[in-house]
Design goal:
Layout lengths: L8 E7 L6 H11 L4 E6 L6 H5 L6 E3 L5 H9 L6 E5 L3 E2 L4 H8 L5 E10 L4 H17 L10 E5 H7 L10 H9 L4 E12 L2 H6 L1 H18 L12
Parallel strand pairs: 1-2, 1-4, 2-3, 6-8
Antiparallel strand pairs: 4-7, 5-8, 6-7
């Protein structure tokens, strides 16, 4: 627990070949609150990911089958917290992420919380795009709430009620989950909270290619309930 009469929290981190990043994230979380329940769900890494994770938490699970939705659901079903945080292994949350996020759940009808996601060490173009993208998600959230799986907090009871992430979706599964979650309560976009992520996919695949993939898969999800992409290959 985080204190008397306060909500308890669990953090679920899906991982695959994340030895370069996961230690930084886990050490940051532990430094913020050493009592947080941390659950790492590994998709079969062949590097040092699992060994690094086990230095920070006993709850490290290795799955035979890969899939971001599958890993998140697996971790969520083993979480004991009232609030479940989902974080990607390559993000960097600020020192006050826990306080700000849990405060949003003081309203009983709040079931999900997301925030600004900004790149680490961005170029000017990347900085401008992500500022616009975050503002767009915030504005659109009043009509159709979205989530960013890189950092998303959900009320455990509501998450289990809607059946968690759709494991058949290789990507945009975070947005799809938020659509269903918004039917049982409020999904809040915190404008005063920013989490930073690596730009490895943009740097390796190219900005326009990644953006095109986002748009095509999102439109396909809205129109047909499925994605164009059959898989979402990890970039390491």
């Amino acid at each position: 627990m985080l204190g008397k009469n306060r909500l308890s929290a669990s953090i679920v981190i899906p991982a695959l070949q994340e030895e370069k990043y996961i230690g930084n994230l886990l050490s940051k979380i532990v430094s913020i609150n050493p009592n947080l329940e941390i659950i790492v769900v590994d998709g079969g890494s062949t590097d040092n990911t699992v060994n690094i994770a086990r230095k920070f938490t006993e709850k490290v699970y290795v799955l035979k089958e890969r899939g971001i939705g599958k890993a998140r659901n697996y971790g969520a079903h083993r979480a004991s917290g009232d609030i479940i945080f989902f974080m990607d292994a390559d993000v960097e949350p600020p020192q006050d992420f826990l306080e700000k996020t849990l405060s949003a759940f003081k309203r009983s009808d709040t079931v999900g919380v997301t925030c600004n996601i900004m790149p680490k060490d961005p170029s000017l173009c990347e900085l401008a795009f992500f500022k616009f993208y975050n503002l767009l998600l915030y504005i659109v959230s009043f009509l159709k709430p979205h989530s960013q799986g890189k950092f998303f907090a959900v009320k455990r009871e509501a998450f289990l009620k809607i059946g968690g992430f759709n494991e058949n979706l290789p990507c945009v599964e975070d947005h799809e989950m938020a659509f269903r979650l918004s039917k049982v309560g409020r999904v809040v976009f915190l404008r005063n909270l920013t989490v930073y992520e690596s730009m490895r996919r943009f740097r390796k695949e190219g900005f326009l290619k990644v953006l095109k993939s986002w748009i095509i898969n999102y439109i396909s999800l809205i129109l047909y309930g499925r994605t164009v992409s059959k898989s979402w290959e990890p970039v390491r």
